[in-house]
Amino acid sequence: MSQSDRNNYETLRENDNTYTVDDAIENLGNGKYQIMIFVVSLLSWMTEGMELLLAAILGPLLICHWKISPISESIMSSATYVGFTLGSVLFVPLADKAGRLGASYSLGVFLQSVLAYFIIPNYGWRIWVAVISTITLLSFLLSLSLQESPRFTEKLGNVRKTESILKIMYKWNNKPFLKGRLLQKTAKLPKINSYAEILKFEDKFSATFLYLTWFGINLVYFGICLIIPQILKDGGGCMKNLTISNNYGMDEFGNCQVFSGKDFLYIMLSGFSEVVAAFATWLLIERVGRINMIFVDNLLTGIISLVLIHCFPKAVYVVLLCLARAFSCSSSHVIILLACEFFPTNIRSTAVGIGFFVCKIGAALSPFIGQYLVTYYPRGAIGTIGVFSLSTSLIVLFIKRDTTSAYLD
């Protein structure tokens, strides 16, 4: 919107009985609608966390229960992310036309690990899978009650739909709706969503390095998360002692005893490290900046990973892995925020969808490091993670524009 359009827009508001979307949202306050958003988001977080925990925990368990090989375990885990990879390209661009809803991640991963801690040792992995599948279904059903973002429909120029959404939100919160008419912004809307529009984006150089950074972050993050259960499964706190178990994790009576109760506690604590990382990121990100935050996170992750090549007691090893996971998790949050702020609204979902496609390729490759390579050459696996992390810390510096405190159009 030009300065003259903005001035005319403000003059209309002063001289007429009108309100804007910002006015309506500001006056809405907090109530039942926000509670529903929180509940749906919480369940969505748990659903998102399911993909990681299924690969990390279920893989080692199925080696014992189904007698599959380490390479089969890696392929099975990798297949989890293939659907995400395809969906990012095929369906995410529709969000710029049909709408978008958001979710976060770390709390869901922790809550899923809590469920694993209480359910798997007592009731088995099948009950755990059934519970998290039920949560996924419940998340989907409740999400149907949410409304599209009124700012998004306003961007499309659909005043009637925008006003209808706002009225529903006010009804949820049991508040009287604003009097007057909704004032539509007069700025010419850009063409919404197509891959052709992506090619017209000016800063292709930075966008390329943003995608490369996202790829490296996800490969490192998922690789670390997959390595932790492998370390626990083999009872190792020293990389050189990790071996392929000849009995697939069975005890002397033929029962699968892949993880002990203490191992599940370690997994839960490693999940909690992500919650701490998310909180720390929230505190520091505006002060440090997006690019600097990603640089520091990956630098520390790489250093810790290379330190882990050496031998430590198991408890110390798990603590160091949790720290590496926390820093890697922090950078995974920041890169999503950077990507969402980096691209303009009319191509944001398509551009971010491409980013998810690229990053899920990294996730799909991570099982071959965190589950297969670690079985045969554990030091090589953790060293590979360290090299990728250090490389990512350098790649992110090629992004020319930091979006910290930037205005979103």
Q: Could you explain the architecture of this structure?
A:
The chain is mainly α and 409 residues long. It has one domain (31-156, 192-398): MFS general substrate transporter like domains (Growth Hormone, Chain: A). The chain is built from 16 helices and 2 strands. The protein has a two-stranded parallel sheet. The model is unreliable at 97-103 and 241-248 (pLDDT under 50).
> What share of residues is helical?
over 70%
Q: Report strand order across the widest sheet.
A: 1-2
Low-confidence stretches: 97-103, 241-248
Termini separation: 9 Å
Tell me, rounded to a whole number, the average pLDDT. Answer: 79
Secondary-structure element order, N to C: HEHHHHHHHHEHHHHHHH
State the name of the first-level CATH class. Mainly Alpha
CATH superfamily: MFS general substrate transporter like domains
What would you call the shape?
globular
Q: What is the radius of gyration computed over CA atoms, rounded to a whole number of angstroms?
A: 24 Å
Topology:
Layout: H1 3-15, E1 18-19, H2 21-28, H3 32-65, H4 70-90, H5 95-98, H6 106-123, H7 125-143, H8 150-155, H9 159-172, E2 181-182, H10 195-199, H11 204-233, H12 261-288, H13 290-307, H14 314-342, H15 345-376, H16 378-395
Parallel strand pairs: 1-2
Entry summary:
This is DgyrCDS3450. The chain has 409 residues and is mainly α. The protein has helices at 3-15, 21-28, 32-65, 70-90, 95-98, 106-123, 125-143, 150-155, 159-172, 195-199, 204-233, 261-288, 290-307, 314-342, 345-376, 378-395; strands spanning 18-19, 181-182.
